[in-house]
């Protein structure tokens, strides 16, 4: 169930999504409020799970992680035991930035960030040694055209 947010909450969230290191004073100024109500709203949104955590965004390429692969996984096994093992393996692999279970012909898609193709092969070999997979297709991203963590708050309005 979606959280009930008003326009002030959305403005606060927009400011935090743009730069979570903003001071309370600056957020309050941007949303035309004072510090205490802004702090109370942020606290409430953290407690209700709207704000999950505050983190820093890093430049993968600047850190030497130049290859981004989208990995399409098909499995012939759909029982709870296999799914549990697969999820456990994914959680243990730092290369896996995102994992989604899909509807359609492909069962899962993974976003994997590594140094290069050799590092991807090391990841792939480890993955298939830990869990049985029917088919894996890896797609190398040639260019990242758009990447954002900013959610479209206007589309989530009540």
From TrEMBL:
Molecular-function annotations in GO: sequence-specific DNA binding
SUPFAM superfamilies per the UniProt record, alphabetical: Dimeric alpha+beta barrel, Winged helix' DNA-binding domain
Any single Pfam family the record assigns to this protein: HTH_AsnC-type
Annotated GO biological process: response to amino acid
Keyword Lipoprotein: no
Cellular compartments per GO CC: cytosol
Taxonomy, superkingdom: Bacteria
InterPro entries given in the database record: AsnC-type_HTH_dom, Dimeric_a/b-barrel, Tscrpt_reg_AsnC-like, Tscrpt_reg_AsnC/Lrp_C, WH-like_DNA-bd_sf, WH_DNA-bd_sf
Annotated keywords: DNA-binding, Transcription, Transcription regulation
SMART domains: HTH_ASNC (SM00344)
Record has Nucleotidyltransferase as a keyword: no
All copies of domain HTH asnC-type, residue ranges: 5-66
Gene3D superfamilies: 3.30.70.920, Winged helix-like DNA-binding domain superfamily/Winged helix DNA-binding domain (1.10.10.10)
PANTHER family (UniProt xref): DNA-BINDING TRANSCRIPTIONAL ACTIVATOR DECR, LEUCINE-RESPONSIVE REGULATORY PROTEIN
Name this polypeptide is given: Lrp/AsnC family transcriptional regulator
Organism phylogeny: Bacteria, Pseudomonadati, Pseudomonadota, Alphaproteobacteria, Rhodobacterales
């Amino acid at each position: 169930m979606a959280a009930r947010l008003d326009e002030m909450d959305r403005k606060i969230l927009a400011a935090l999504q743009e730069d979570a290191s903003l001071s309370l004073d600056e957020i309050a100024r941007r949303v035309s409020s004072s510090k205490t109500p802004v702090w109370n709203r942020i606290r409430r949104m953290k407690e209700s799970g709207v704000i999950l955590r505050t983190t820093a965004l890093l430049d993968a390429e600047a850190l030497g992680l130049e290859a981004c692969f989208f990995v399409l996984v098909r499995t012939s096994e759909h029982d709870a035991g296999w799914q549990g093992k697969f999820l456990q393996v994914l959680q243990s692999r730092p290369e896996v930035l995102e994992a989604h279970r899909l509807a359609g012909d492909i069962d899962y898609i993974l976003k994997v960030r590594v140094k290069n193709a050799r590092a991807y092969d090391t990841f792939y070999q480890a993955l298939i040694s830990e869990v049985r997979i029917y088919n894996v297709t890896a797609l190398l991203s040639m260019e990242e055209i758009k990447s954002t963590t900013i959610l479209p708050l206007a589309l989530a309005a009540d």
